[in-house]
Specification:
With about 80 residues, the protein is mainly α. The chain has three helices and no strands. This is Membrane protein YkvI.
C-alpha cells in the first residue's frame, strides 16, 4: 500500500508541473521518484521528529490568524457602509 500511495503521489506531482504522456513528464517523474527514494533513507523517526512539531506550530499560527481575522472582518464591513 505504501508503494501504491507513493506511485500515485509522484504521478500527481509530475502532472502538476508537466503535461501528462510526454517525455518531459516521464523524465520529471523519474527524477522525482529517484529523489523521493533517496530521501526515504533519511529515516522515518527523524522526519517525524522534525515535521510533527513544525506542523503543530503552523496549525497554531493558522488558528491565531483565523481568530484575528474573525474579529477584524466585521470592522471592515462597517467601514464600507
Amino acid at each position: 500500500m505504501i508503494f501504491n500511495t507513493a506511485t500515485s503521489m509522484f504521478y500527481s506531482f509530475g502532472a502538476r508541473f508537466t503535461k501528462i504522456e510526454t517525455t518531459k513528464f516521464k523524465v520529471f517523474s523519474l527524477f522525482a521518484g529517484i529523489i523521493g527514494f533517496a530521501l526515504s533513507f533519511v529515516g522515518f523517526t527523524e522526519l517525524v521528529a522534525l515535521f510533527y512539531p513544525l506542523i503543530g506550530y503552523l496549525g497554531l499560527v493558522l488558528i491565531g490568524v483565523l481568530i484575528y481575522t474573525s474579529f477584524r472582518m466585521p470592522a471592515k464591513t462597517k467601514e464600507r457602509d
